[in-house]
Backbone:
């Protein structure tokens, strides 16, 4: 049986009802409001549903964590600007705050393309079937020119085949099931273990931002967090801002395992079977290759899978990062010159918050659960609708939390 998970509203909808005036004041003070729009111009508004959604999920996390032992109260909206505060990022219009993703106009629709990895850049000639310059700035100019005459659907289909993080803007909005914040599937009934968070072990196999933020929130609620990384392919966030990495992982234990070693794979499976909660954000074939996945491991009360576009057959192998996934969910903003990014990789922190809410909800319900959360689905659940108005003179700067040791 599959159940829809919804935070703070009802059991049947992800429509976060927001008072636009109240949402506007909260958003202006959040520290994240200045991250949407073009450099040099006033920040652009975002959907009130985004603002209210974060507030609703945060309030639910506070209530659920308190019922399980330790209340977590944070400046929830400020989390959306935390990376920007630490790394000194700012709004760039149709260029993401981090600089790796761009919104591009095609012959039919807008698309978002991320070139976050060397392999993505190397795939550009095959994607566009053209000779392209090596210089990154010149490359983007040529990509922009080439896609302007192509159809978006064709470009995204080719991106999927090449393993490129790309999406058509709003592709998830029309697909109602994908708008669900999370899907909770019960796999066993009855109480499992303890319901006190300070007695629970979380094994975090995720990387970058969404999964680690979920683990961070569970750690603040009292859980013991053990981060597991492949020694051959550690978390890519380690190569970014050290301070931001420490904000997400402060106070957590860390284990490095060689995933090509039979002995280390035995240790990995044993650790997962001891866990009360598992967090992972890998494509299904990655865990299947290790012989360790949610279908074969018995033990965790909650198995949380975070994916870019979901676990359906057609989407399970698609790559996504926070900015292109947000665009897929229609979570963008706009001015007279075209579309602009909404905040900094916003699908990542939104998904971390939603995922933590889902895990806590599953623990309160009891039994064993598999929880699936898609970045683009979370973004879609908080897109569209009325936009907040902004007072450009009252917009706070991004801010970050102190590292918890």
Residues:
């Amino acid at each position: 049986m599959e159940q829809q998970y919804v935070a703070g509203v009802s059991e049947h909808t992800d429509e976060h009802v927001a008072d636009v005036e109240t949402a506007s004041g909260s958003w202006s003070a959040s520290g994240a409001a200045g991250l949407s729009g073009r450099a040099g111009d006033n920040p652009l508004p975002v959907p009130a549903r985004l603002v209210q959604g974060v507030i609703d999920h945060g309030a639910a996390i506070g209530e659920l964590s308190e019922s399980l032992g330790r209340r977590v109260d944070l400046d929830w909206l400020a989390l959306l600007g935390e990376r920007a505060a630490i790394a000194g990022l700012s709004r760039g219009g149709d260029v993401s705050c981090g600089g790796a993703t761009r919104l591009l106009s095609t012959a039919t629709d807008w698309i978002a393309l991320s070139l976050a990895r060397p392999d993505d850049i190397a795939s550009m000639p095959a994607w566009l079937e053209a000779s392209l310059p090596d210089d990154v700035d010149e490359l983007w100019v040529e990509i922009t020119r080439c896609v302007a005459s192509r159809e978006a659907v064709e470009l995204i289909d080719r991106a999927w085949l090449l393993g490129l993080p790309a999406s058509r803007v709003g592709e998830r909005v029309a697909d109602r099931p994908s708008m669900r914040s999370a899907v909770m599937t019960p796999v066993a009934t009855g109480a499992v273990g303890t319901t006190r968070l300070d007695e629970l072990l979380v094994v975090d196999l995720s990387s970058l931002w969404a999964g680690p933020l979920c683990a961070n929130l569970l750690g603040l609620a009292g859980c013991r967090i053990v981060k597991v990384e492949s020694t051959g392919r550690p978390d890519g966030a380690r190569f970014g801002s050290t301070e931001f990495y420490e904000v997400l992982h402060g106070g957590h234990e860390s284990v490095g395992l060689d995933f090509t070693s039979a002995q280390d794979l035995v240790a990995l499976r044993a650790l997962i079977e001891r866990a009360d909660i598992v967090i992972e954000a890998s494509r299904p074939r990655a865990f299947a290759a290790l012989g360790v996945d949610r279908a074969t491991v018995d033990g965790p009360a909650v198995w949380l899978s975070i994916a870019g576009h979901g676990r359906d057959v057609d989407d399970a192998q698609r790559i996504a990062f926070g900015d292109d996934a947000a665009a897929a969910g229609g979570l963008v903003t706009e001015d007279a010159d075209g579309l602009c990014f909404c905040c900094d990789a916003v699908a990542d922190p939104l998904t971390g918050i939603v995922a933590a809410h889902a895990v806590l909800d599953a623990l309160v319900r009891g039994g064993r659960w598999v929880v699936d959360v898609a970045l683009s689905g979370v973004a879609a659940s908080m897109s569209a609708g009325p936009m907040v108005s902004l007072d450009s003179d009252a917009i706070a700067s991004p801010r970050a939390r102190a590292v918890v040791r």
Remarks:
- Residues 331 and 383 are 5 Å apart (CA to CA).
- The first helix runs from residue 20 to 28.
